Amino acid sequence: MTVCQFAKAPFGRFIEDRPQLLRRINELAIRELSQARDHMVLLGRRSADEKVATFLLGWRERQVALKGLSDTVPLPMSRQDIADYLGLTIETVSRTFTKLERHGVIEIIHGGISLLDPVRAEALAAA
């Protein structure tokens, strides 16, 4: 990742001549705000099963954007990191992964999961 910092006034002048860039920045900001809102709802109103299914499908979407459609979802995050992100305990995340695997929704593989039944995962995430 590379981070750049710009002074406000010169950047304002720069962007005035590039309305398409300003439009794109606004689109990205709106998308980020929408994702933040969705994450707050996820944390506050969803069951552990719904949280984990939503997380897996969201991570799969990110992977699709980078590498194309695949039912294998790499998970570079530890279960503790996933638990922290979802507002759950590591034990709950592990139990939920096991439950989803037992019900044939996912298969736990080295370094990630294989999404065996995306339709059921989507139904659970939409609940």
TrEMBL record:
Q: Which SUPFAM superfamilies match?
A: Winged helix' DNA-binding domain
Tell me the first and last residues of the signal peptide: none
| Stretches assigned to the HTH crp-type domain | 46-119
Q: Which InterPro entries match?
A: HTH_CRP, RmlC-like_jellyroll, Tscrpt_reg_HTH_Crp-type_CS, WH_DNA-bd_sf
Query: What name goes with this protein?
Result: CRP-like cAMP-binding protein
- Species lineage: Bacteria, Pseudomonadati, Pseudomonadota, Alphaproteobacteria, Hyphomicrobiales
